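Q&A log
Question type: sequence-to-structure
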Amino acid sequence: MASDINDNTTPFNAVAKWSGRTLFVTATGEIELVNSPQLESVLNQALADEPEVLVLDIMDVTFLSSAGLAVLVRAHRDADAAGTEFRVVAANAATLRPIQLMGLDQEFDVFADRDDALSGARGL
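Response status: OK
Response body:
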């Protein structure tokens, strides 16, 4: 029996955790067309919690599609509108390269690790 392409779900998870007034959202797996709305939902909820700084950690993401990049752009725009600083932790080739190719590292702060992202956070 042939497999149905729609039955193939890609592994993805995102969790949020506070550190002072900074909210870390850690995503793992693949961020692509099917599950990018899930990441967007988590980021929207995170912004609704009104953090001073929102850090998206995608170090354990193995694939970042154009749909995932669009989520990052919208999250940055929404964070800016809410007065929240938006930061991304991305240093692996699967995440950093697409961000750099699209010039998004010029739009929002990208850090090599969580400690760097946290140390730059205001009010800590």
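Response note: Residues 1-5 have pLDDT under 50 and may be disordered.
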